[in-house]
Design goal:
3-stranded antiparallel beta sheet; 11 strands; about 35% helix; globular
C-alpha cells in the first residue's frame, strides 16, 4: 500500500533526521505495511551520510479512531523492551532498535524505529513455496520457540511489569490478569459474548495452570506468516518481527501451538501430547489469544 500524506511525510523526516542527527537526510519513499499499528517501510536518501536507499521500519500507535485493546497502549514500549533484551542473542533474527520514543518530543506521537530485516514476508511467499521449503521453515520456527522458552524470569506476566518488579507470583494469577483485561476490552467494545459463562468455565479449569512453575519467555504471535521473513530460495528464516505481544509464562500459550505441524514440533525438540493438563491449558489459551 503506497503512502501519500504531506503531514505524515514531514513527521517521518523529523524522526529520521533526529535519529541520524543530520538535516541532510530525507525520506525517498514510504510504504504502509500494516494499518492497525501503523507500520511503514521507509527508504532513506542521503549521499552525504552514505546511507542512500537504506530501509528502516517506523511503527506508530493505532489512529485515535481505531478500536484498541489494553495491551495496544504499551505495545511500542513492550516491543522495544523485548528487542533490547534479545539484542545480543546470536540465534534469533531480530531487528535492532534505533529509537523508541514515548514522550512525543520529536513528533506528536510515540514511535518505534528499527532496522529493516531482509527477505520476503512468509504470508506473501507461502503460495509459491514447495512443501519441502515449508517444512524447513516450520522446523526453524519450532526451534526459535524452544530457544525463547529457555529464557526465564523471576516472575510471571507482562514483560514491563516483570521488569518493574510488579510481576505475578504464579502463572495462574498472570493468566487471569491477561484474560480479564481482554474480557473488559470486549465489554467496553460492547461485543455480545457469554461473559459469565466464560469466567465460570475458566475458573473451573484454573488448577491446570499450576503445572507451570517456571516463568519462560513466550512470544504469543511469533511464527504467524505475516510476522516472519524468509529467503524463498533457501527456506531460511531471515527475520522475526512484531515483538509486542510477549509474556513470561507458559511457552504453549503461543498461537503456533493451536495447530502445530509435525515439523514445528520436530524443530521444537520436545515431546508434546494432547493428554492431561496441557490440552486443558491449550483450551483455555484459545479464549485468551
Amino acid at each position: 500500500m503506497e503512502f501519500d500524506s504531506s503531514h505524515e511525510w514531514t513527521e517521518f523526516e523529523k524522526v529520521v533526521q533526529s535519529v541520524y542527527q543530520s538535516s541532510s537526510i530525507s525520506v525517498r519513499h514510504a510504504e504502509c505495511l500494516a494499518s492497525h499499528h501503523q507500520v511503514y517501510r521507509i527508504t532513506l536518501a542521503s549521499t552525504i551520510l552514505m546511507i542512500d536507499s537504506t530501509d528502516i521500519i517506523l511503527k506508530l500507535p493505532p489512529r485515535a479512531n481505531t478500536p484498541q485493546l489494553s495491551h495496544d497502549r504499551s505495545a511500542l514500549l513492550t516491543e522495544s523492551h523485548v528487542l533490547s533484551f534479545l539484542k545480543h542473542d546470536p540465534v534469533l533474527p531480530v531487528p535492532s532498535v534505533l529509537r523508541c520514543e514515548t514522550r512525543r518530543s520529536t513528533i506528536s506521537r510515540p514511535f518505534l524505529l528499527t532496522e529493516c530485516l531482509p527477505g520476503t514476508r512468509l504470508a506473501d511467499a507461502l503460495p509459491y513455496l514447495p512443501q519441502s521449503t515449508r517444512c524447513k521453515i516450520d522446523q526453524q520456527l519450532g526451534f526459535f520457540h524452544n530457544h525463547l522458552s529457555l529464557k526465564q524470569a523471576p516472575a510471571f506476566g507482562h514483560p514491563l511489569a516483570v521488569a518493574n518488579g510488579t510481576g505475578c507470583a504464579s502463572w495462574r494469577e498472570a493468566f487471569v490478569t491477561i484474560l480479564e483485561s481482554l474480557l473488559r476490552d470486549a465489554e467496553d467494545m460492547m461485543l455480545s459474548l457469554p461473559y459469565a459463562h466464560i469466567r465460570q468455565h475458566i475458573s473451573r479449569l484454573l488448577p491446570a495452570l499450576d503445572d507451570v512453575t517456571e516463568a519462560r519467555l513466550c512470544m504469543v504471535e511469533l511464527g504467524l506468516p505475516d510476522r516472519v521473513f524468509v529467503n524463498p530460495e533457501t527456506g531460511r528464516v531471515t527475520g522475526l518481527v512484531d515483538w509486542s505481544w510477549a509474556v513470561w509464562g507458559d511457552p504453549s500459550f503461543a498461537k503456533m501451538w493451536e495447530q502445530p505441524s509435525a515439523d514445528f514440533i520436530e524443530g521444537y525438540g520436545e515431546v508434546f501430547t494432547n493428554a492431561g493438563h496441557l490440552q486443558t491449558r491449550r483450551t483455555m489459551y484459545v479464549i485468551a489469544v
